[in-house]
Design the sequence.
C-alpha cells in the first residue's frame, strides 16, 4: 500500500510546511440525502474555458465552468510546476470528474449537477488568503441552489 | 482546499473534499475530507479509468451523509491503477517516437534541435489530438515554433512577449508549460504504460526542449525582468528535476 511516499519527500515537505492557520470554529452544515443534493465542483487545478482568461502566476480569482461544458474546451494554466499534468492531458476527469458526476446524476445517485462549477489557481498563495474569494463563491453557489460542494485539489 | 472548505461551510454550504496530502488536511481540520493515496495532479487516480474514478467520486460524495462531528477525515483504501511504486524506475521506459540525438548539441544550437524535435513530434501530436478530441495546448494562442523561438530568445535577454497584453514573465511561464504539453501529448499518443515519472524524466533528461528550459534557469535568474526572474526561481524546473541543473 502506497501512502505518503506517493509524494517525494521534497514535495511532501513543501506542502506540509505551508502555513496552515487553525480555525477557531468548526462549521458543519447538514443536508438531504445525496440523491436529493445539487452538486457543484470547485477545483484548484487552474482549469478554464479556452477563451477565458489564463490564470496569472499569483491569482486569487476564479473562473466559471458551465455545467454543460464540453471537456474539450477546458485548458489548465495553474501556476505550479510540481505536479503531474499528463493525466489531465489524457483525460479531464482525472482532475475534474464532470463526466463521472453526470453519470451518477443520470443514475439517480446524485440529485442534480449544478449549472456552474468554479476553478481556482491553487498555487502562489497561503490558505487564509482565499477567504474573500471563497465567501464570494458561496453566494454564487447558493444562487445556483447548490447544497453539496465537492472540493478537488490538484 | 481545506481553507476553502472551512469558509464555504461557514457560509452555510455543505462541503466534502479530496486530500492528496493527509498531514496538511489534518492540520487544517476541514469538515469532511477523503484522503486519497494518489500522486499530485491526479485526484481521481488515473486517466481513462472510468470505474475507478467513479469509486473515488462515490467515496467522496458519501461524506455528505456522514453524521459527524467535524472534522471527518477518511482514507480511500486503494492505490491508483498503474501507480508508480518506489523503486520501479529501474524498469525504464523509452519514448516510442524517435528523436534526433542531442548528446553533442551546444546551447546556441538548442533552438535548431528543438525545431527538429517538433518536426518529429508533429504527427504524434496531431494523432493525440484526433484520438482524444482535444488538446491542452494553445493557451497562449501562439504557434509552437514561435513558443520555442521566444523561449530561446530569453537566453540573450528579455524578448518581447509573444502575446499582446501578457507580461513577458507570464508568457515565459505559460510558454514553458505549452512546450512541455506539446511534447507530452505527442509522447502519449501511442498506447503504453509510461508513468508520469517516466514522462517527466524523458522530457527533462532526453529532449532538446528539456535541455533548453534547464539552460534558461541560470540565465533567467539574473534577468532584467522581475517576472522572468520569479518564474526561473520557482515556476520553471520542477523540484523533482532540479538535480539536472548544473551546480
Sequence:
Amino acid at each position: 500500500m502506497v501512502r505518503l511516499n506517493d509524494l517525494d519527500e521534497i514535495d511532501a515537505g513543501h506542502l506540509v510546511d505551508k502555513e496552515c492557520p487553525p480555525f477557531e470554529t468548526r462549521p458543519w452544515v447538514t443536508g438531504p440525502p445525496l440523491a436529493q443534493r445539487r452538486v457543484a465542483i470547485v477545483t484548484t487545478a487552474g482549469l478554464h474555458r479556452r477563451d477565458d482568461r489564463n490564470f496569472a502566476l499569483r491569482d486569487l480569482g476564479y473562473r466559471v465552468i458551465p455545467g454543460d461544458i464540453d471537456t474539450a474546451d477546458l485548458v489548465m494554466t495553474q501556476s505550479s510546476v510540481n505536479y503531474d499534468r499528463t493525466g489531465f492531458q489524457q483525460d479531464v476527469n482525472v482532475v475534474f470528474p464532470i463526466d463521472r458526476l453526470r453519470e451518477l446524476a443520470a443514475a439517480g445517485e446524485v440529485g442534480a449537477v449544478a449549472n456552474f462549477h468554479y476553478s481556482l489557481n491553487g498555487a502562489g498563495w497561503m490558505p487564509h488568503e482565499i477567504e474573500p474569494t471563497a465567501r464570494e463563491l458561496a453566494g454564487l453557489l447558493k444562487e445556483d441552489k447548490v447544497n453539496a460542494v465537492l472540493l478537488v485539489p490538484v | 482546499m481545506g481553507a476553502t472548505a472551512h469558509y464555504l461551510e461557514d457560509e452555510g454550504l455543505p462541503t466534502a473534499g479530496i486530500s492528496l496530502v493527509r498531514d496538511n488536511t489534518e492540520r487544517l481540520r476541514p469538515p469532511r475530507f477523503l484522503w486519497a493515496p494518489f500522486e499530485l495532479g491526479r485526484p481521481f487516480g488515473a486517466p481513462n479509468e472510468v470505474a475507478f474514478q467513479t469509486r473515488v467520486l462515490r467515496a467522496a460524495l458519501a461524506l455528505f451523509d456522514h453524521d459527524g462531528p467535524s472534522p471527518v477525515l477518511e482514507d480511500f483504501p486503494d492505490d491508483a491503477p498503474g501507480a508508480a511504486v518506489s523503486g520501479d524506475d529501474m524498469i525504464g521506459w523509452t519514448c516510442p517516437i524517435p528523436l534526433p540525438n542531442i548528446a553533442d548539441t551546444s546551447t546556441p544550437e538548442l533552438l535548431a534541435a528543438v525545431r527538429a524535435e517538433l518536426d518529429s513530434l508533429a504527427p504524434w501530436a496531431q494523432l493525440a489530438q484526433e484520438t482524444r478530441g482535444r488538446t491542452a495546448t494553445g493557451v497562449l494562442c501562439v504557434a509552437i515554433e514561435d513558443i520555442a523561438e521566444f523561449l530561446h530568445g530569453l537566453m540573450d535577454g528579455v524578448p518581447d512577449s509573444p502575446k499582446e497584453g501578457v507580461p513577458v514573465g507570464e508568457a515565459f511561464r505559460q510558454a514553458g508549460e505549452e512546450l512541455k504539453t506539446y511534447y507530452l501529448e505527442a509522447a502519449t499518443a501511442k498506447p503504453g504504460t509510461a508513468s508520469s515519472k517516466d514522462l517527466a524524466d524523458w522530457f527533462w533528461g532526453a529532449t532538446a526542449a528539456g535541455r533548453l528550459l534547464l539552460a534558461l534557469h541560470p540565465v533567467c535568474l539574473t534577468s532584467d525582468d522581475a517576472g522572468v526572474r520569479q518564474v526561473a526561481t520557482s515556476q520553471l524546473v520542477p523540484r523533482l528535476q532540479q538535480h539536472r541543473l548544473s551546480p
